[in-house]
Amino acid sequence: MQGMQAWLTVVGIGDDGYAGLGRDARRALFDAAIVTGGARHLAMLPARVRARREPWPQPFNVEALLAHRASNMPVCVLASGDPMLFGVGATLARRLAPGDMRVLPAPSSLSLAAARMGWALQDTAMVSLVGRPLDALRRHLHARSRVLALSADGRTPAALAALLTEAGFGATRLAVFEHVGGPLERRVEGRADAWHVDETAALNLVAFECASDAAHTGARGWTLTPGLPDDAYRHDGQLTKRDVRALTLARLAPAPGALLWDVGAGSGSIGIEWMRSHPACRAIAIEAHAGRQRFIEHNRAALGVPGLQLVAGRAPEALAGLATPDAVFIGGGVTAPGVLEACWAALASGGRLVANAVTLQSEATLVAWRAQHGGTLTRIGIGEAQPLGGFDTWRQALPVTLYEVVKP
User: Fold this and answer.
1) What are residue 149's DSSP bridge partners?
2) 72, 126, 334, 390: least surrounded by Cβ within 10 Å?
3) pLDDT tens digits for range 284-339
4) Burial classification of residue 177, based on how many CB atoms lie within 10 Å of its CB (0-12 exposed, 13-18 middle, 19 or more buried)
5) Is the peptide bond prior to 59 cis by the omega test (within 30 degrees of 0)?
6) Using CB atoms within 10 A of its CB, is residue 33 exposed (0-12), middle (13-18) or buried (19+)?
7) Other Cβ atoms closer than 10 A to 229
8) What are residue 390's phi and psi, to 5 degrees?
9) Are 64 and 54 spatial neighbours (Cβ–Cβ below 8 Å)?
10) Which run of H or E residues covers position 77?
11) Strand arrangement, sheet containing 146-150
12) Segment 12-42, tens digit of pLDDT
């Protein structure tokens, strides 16, 4: 029985404190030799819980807790609501075998807020802003999107309202839930562009359904599918253009949790759209040009993927020590000595390598690489109708050769 073998029990506790715990959670606390948690949660326990109380260290880490594994003593962790939803339970699950830990969840604050709003949780985006940039919200800003955001502190709602207003969604109504599920629960509401509360209770979350301001022509909700308009990005011309970008992302085939290397990232568009395709997708942009590094920093924030990692340097030297990629895109530097070889060596088995070439020399390099390693070559030719005198004609963009190969 997994529950009998586990030395660690993670107990979810709501803002209603000990009174809201079920029988199994209370029994785990009474049986524990040590209880770890935040000071606020530990203070909720009655004196008759005799376990030694150990607050989380500051800055937060779980090393002291994991050191108890060898003691053969039962240990409890107190965590907010559902510990597996943006909680410490998920952190611990990455470090422990399943038989070492059992989790006794309480209703999460997000579930409670969804119930108060009458929203189906599976149709609602959930975002944690605790220790994360506010720009992470931008990925979810589009008309009628419903969002539940866990606030970092009492100033988060005002900052969120300002972000919505700046993005052209000032007509959005915010509902801020303080201490949801507890005796101090309070709800504060208002429009983003008329937000009136500088600071709420530190323990809060924000619910909103995006509504654009009809008077604000700049409100834009970028699609999550590949091929954002080129003007979504700041760039100096080193940008994989929209249609080619969509085809390139289709060949890269983003999957949840997969890691992409975007080598010679330019303005970061490939890595950004890879990450926008699913919240669990990860990407590393490798770029040597200082000005383009600044473009990447701006674009990743503006398009809602501030977690895109930027490595300042030139391949192949800058690739050393990076996490193993599931996919690699080479948008620049195909002809540089060692780049293809280093990317191929680092790529995980079953991973994809995709490269684009515009010049004869880079195309010749890909042709030679295909002769050694297999794969496919695709020529992409795109024309746009443009004025010619009083008529229109086709203007052809430079053809792009797209190479794709899967590593055995």
Assistant:
1) 127, 206
2) 390
3) 999 999 999 999 999 999 999 999 999 999 999 999 999 999 999 999 889 999 99
4) buried
5) yes
6) middle
7) 10
8) -90, 10
9) yes
10) strand 75-80
11) 125-128, 146-150, 204-209, 173-178, 186-191
12) 999 999 999 999 999 999 999 999 999 999 9
Taking CA atoms, 36 is separated from 21, 79, 230, in Å, by 16, 9, 50
Q: CA distances (Å), 51 to each of 30, 42, 239, 336, in order?
A: 7, 11, 59, 62
Token output for 366: 């890909």
> What are φ and ψ of residue 223, in 5° steps?
-65, 155
Q: Can you tell me the distance from the alpha carbon of 41 to that of 85, in angstroms, rounded to the nearest whole number?
A: 17
CA 293 to CA 304: how far, in whole Å?
17
Q: Which helix (H) or strand (E) holds 41?
A: helix 39-42
Amino acid in position 159: A
Tokens found for residue 302: 């503006």
Measured CA to CA, the distance from residue 311 to residue 328 in angstroms comes to 14
